[in-house]
Amino acid sequence: MQIEFDLQAPEVNQDPYPLFGRLRRERPISYGRSFLGPAYMVARYEDVRSILEDSDKFVSDPRSLGGTDPTARWWMPNMMAAFRDNLVSADDPQHKRLRTLVHKAFTPRRVELLAKNVADWVDRLLGDAKKKRNFDLVADFALPLPLNIISDMMGVPENDRHGFHAYTKRFLDGSMTSPFNVVTDRNQSTFRAGLLSWTVGARAQLRDRSTDR
């Protein structure tokens, strides 16, 4: 089958939007190379939505159809299990179980508190922007806004957030280019170890704070 895109190509990794635009116009369903191997890409919103809403014909987890998950290969680090055993990549009944657990974090009361937290962070970031001579919409607003909101939900202290984001970003950037980078790139080993160490430490701190109450 003809390869119509290559997500591992350097020019695509640097700027994927021209490729996405061409596929939307010319090849709404195409075949090519993803960072986990051969794959089909669906480029148009309505098509993507139809697929996501049709659980009778499509699955999120290849294991549901007797296939194998690329992240389950023997040489993959154990922490890659998080990429396959999560809400996004799960099918029912596992998906329903995880969705029920997540739903508990978004009760009307919690959503109300979250909305206030979002508004507070927007005001804070825009207030900081007013004090600067130059303002980068992505670096100074679009990036720190979700980073801080998610960090608040996860209990990440403010002084740890930039480190947490750096570890996560470098790990994801490397693994998205090629899954082999997770194992072969020395920098990835460093970032993976740093992220794991931070996570273990953060969990211990949360546990200690819960015990003190």
Tell me the major beta sheet: 3 strands, mixed
Mean pLDDT: 78
Q: What's the total count of β strands? A: 3
| Global outline | globular
| Straight-line N-to-C gap | 61 Å
Rg of Cα set: 20 Å
Q: Please give the share of residues in helix.
A: 55-70%
Structural class of the secondary structure composition? Answer: mainly alpha
Please list the strands of the largest sheet in the order they lie side by side: 1-2-3
Return residue spans where pLDDT drops below 50 for at least 5 consecutive residues.
none
The fraction of residues assigned to DSSP E strands is 5-15%
Count of separate DSSP helical elements: 10
Q: Helix and strand string, N-terminal first?
A: EHHEEHHHHHHHH
Summarize this structure briefly.
By secondary structure, the protein is mainly alpha-helical.
Structure in words:
The longest helix has 27 residues, at 186-212. This protein has a domain at 1-58. The mean pLDDT is 78. A hairpin with a 2-residue loop joins β2 (29-34) and β3 (37-42). The radius of gyration is 20 Å and the shape is globular. 57% of the residues lie in helices and 7% in strands. The chain is built from ten helices and three strands, in the order βααββαααααααα. It has a three-stranded mixed sheet. By secondary structure, the chain is mainly alpha-helical.
Topology:
Blueprint: E1 5-6, H1 10-14, H2 17-26, E2 29-34, E3 37-42, H3 45-53, H4 94-103, H5 108-130, H6 137-142, H7 144-154, H8 161-177, H9 181-184, H10 186-212
Parallel strand pairs: 1-2
Antiparallel strand pairs: 2-3
Helix pairs in contact: 5-7, 8-10
